[in-house]
């Protein structure tokens, strides 16, 4: 696991942007972290790296937002309001696990074994894999620890 320490929301977004510039179609990123940890900030940067100019918002109430204006479509899911895998399936969200673009799942731990055995290397150096698990932890008011699978592992 690689660890990146972000000192501001802008740095968190910059990490996401680096990932977006190198992302390949089919990538799924599972984001875990408390409320206010910076998950949506990361996605805003990712969208910018994909060339998406639309304003990115958390899809907490919509469950999924789709942004199609970049070099790849971005499917942004938020599972905060769903508590079980059965509710997620009933909501029809499984189709986003085989994206023709990039899928980001906030609160990915609610899906259970989202990545299964298909985890792959991720990070700004290798975001072409099928599934990347990212954990964002609050260290201070604007400091975050972002842990993810390292392409050098």
Describe this structure in a few short sentences.
The protein is α/β, with parallel strands linked by helices and 153 residues long.
Q: What is the gyration radius calculated from CA atoms?
A: 14 Å
Mean pLDDT, to the nearest integer, reads: 85
CATH class: Alpha Beta
Give start-end ranges of low-pLDDT stretches: 115-121, 123-129
Strand order of the largest sheet: 1-7-6-2-5-4-3
Secondary structure: number of strands: 7
CATH fold-type name = Rossmann fold
CATH architecture: 3-Layer(aba) Sandwich
Tell me the CATH superfamily.
P-loop containing nucleotide triphosphate hydrolases
Keywords:
Rossmann fold; alpha/beta; 20% helix; globular; 153 residues; 3 helices; seven-stranded mixed beta sheet
List the helices and strands and how they pair.
Elements lengths: L1 E5 L2 H14 L4 E6 L6 H11 L14 E4 L6 E5 L6 H6 L11 E5 L24 E8 L5 E5 L5
Parallel strand pairs: 2-5, 2-6, 4-5
Antiparallel strand pairs: 1-7, 3-4, 6-7
Helix pairs in contact: 1-2
Describe, in plain words, how this protein is organized in 3D.
This protein is of the alpha/beta class and 153 residues long. It has one domain: P-loop containing nucleotide triphosphate hydrolases (Rossmann fold, 3-Layer(aba) Sandwich). The chain is built from three helices and seven strands; from the N terminus they run βαβαββαβββ. It has helices at 9-22, 39-49, 85-90, and strands at 2-6, 27-32, 64-67, 74-78, 102-106, 131-138, 144-148. A seven-stranded mixed beta sheet has the order 1-7-6-2-5-4-3, covered by helices on one side. Helix 1 packs across helix 2 (39-49). It is globular and about 40 Å long. The relative contact order is 0.26.
């Amino acid at each position: 696991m690689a660890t990146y320490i972000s000192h501001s929301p802008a740095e968190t977004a910059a990490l996401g942007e680096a990932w977006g510039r190198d992302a390949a179609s089919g990538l799924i990123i599972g984001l875990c972290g408390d409320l206010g940890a910076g998950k949506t900030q990361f996605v805003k940067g990712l969208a910018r790296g994909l060339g998406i100019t639309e304003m990115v918002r958390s899809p907490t109430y919509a469950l999924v937002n789709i942004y199609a204006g970049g070099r790849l479509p971005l499917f942004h899911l938020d599972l905060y309001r769903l508590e079980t895998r059965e509710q997620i399936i009933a909501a029809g969200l499984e189709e986003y696990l085989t994206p023709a673009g990039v899928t980001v799942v906030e609160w990915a731990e609610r899906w259970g074994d989202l990545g299964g055995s298909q985890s792959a290397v991720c990070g700004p150096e290798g975001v072409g894999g099928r599934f990347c698990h990212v954990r964002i932890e609050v260290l201070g008011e604007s400091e975050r620890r972002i842990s993810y699978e390292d392409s050098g592992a």
